[in-house]
Amino acid sequence: LSLRLQRKPLIRKGYVQLDAVTHTCNPNTLGGRAVQSVSMQVPGASGSRISVSHSTSFRGGMGSGGLASGMAGGLAGMGGIQNEKETMQSLNNRLASYLDKVRSLETENRRLESKIWEHLEKKGSQVRDWSHYFKIMEDLRAQIFANTMDNARIVLQIDNYETELAMRQSVENNIHGLRKVIDDTNVTRLQLETEIEALKEELLFMKKNHEEEVKGLQAQIASSGLTVEVDAPKSQDLTKIMADNPAQYDELARKNREELDKYWSQQTEESTTVVTTQSAEVGAAKTTLTELRHTVQSLEIDLDSVRNLEASLENSLREVEACYALQMEQLNGILLHLESELAQTRAEEQRQAHEYEALLNIKVKLEAEITTYRHLLEDGEEFNLGDALDSWSPVARSLLTASSASRVLAILLPQPPE
Question: How far apart are CA 201 and CA 194, in angstroms?
Answer without folding.
Answer: 11
